[in-house]
Write a structure and sequence with these properties.
- The chain is an alpha+beta fold and 143 residues long.
- The protein has a 3-stranded antiparallel beta sheet with strand order 3-4-5, with no helix packed on it. Strands 1-2 form a two-stranded antiparallel ribbon.
- Strand 3 and strand 4 form a beta hairpin.
- The chain folds into 3 domains: 34 residues, no CATH class; 55 residues, no CATH class; 51 residues, no CATH class.
- The chain contains 2 helices and 5 strands, in the order ααβββββ.
Length: 143
């Protein structure tokens, strides 16, 4: 984040809280930033991702009749739109690459072990196979 983004915790307070010598486990320090309400998801992505080699921007799409043929997303009352959300992330623990003939997981950090099933297959219990994984990647089989 840039130096112009107002944080609710100054550097000295953050260092004091994060450097708690009595802590035996992880230390969590809450820091919040106030962002201009006019910030677009793309601008937030560009600012947060910066020079990170990997990042993502996921946005919910507008609900239209063709995407909701059974009316599952129909709001009660007179509201005809649902809230839309954007998720921005960077420096992932794992990268999931989906190819026409296979799905690969490239592990970048310790939490990457949570991606995929315990048997090396995908979360639906399918076992690996169906393609050669790139170096450093786990092949989860057909996409």
């Amino acid at each position: 984040m840039s130096d112009s983004t107002p944080l609710d915790t100054d550097r000295e307070t953050f260092v004091d809280l994060a450097g708690d010598a009595d802590a035996e486990g992880p230390v969590v320090v809450r820091v919040a930033a106030s962002l201009d309400a006019d910030v677009t998801p793309l601008a937030a992505y560009a600012t947060l991702v910066g020079d990170s080699p990997y990042g993502f921007l996921l946005e919910s799409g507008e609900k239209v009749a063709s995407s909701d043929p059974d009316g599952a997303f129909t709001a009660g009352g007179k509201a005809d739109k649902h809230p839309r959300y954007s998720f921005v992330g960077y420096d992932p623990e794992a990268i999931v690459s989906v190819h026409p003939d296979r799905t690969e997981v490239t592990e970048l950090g310790p939490a990457a072990s949570f991606v995929g099933g315990a048997d090396g297959g995908d979360v639906d219990g399918e076992t690996g196979g169906g393609g050669t994984a790139a170096a450093g990647a786990t092949d989860l089989g057909p996409a």
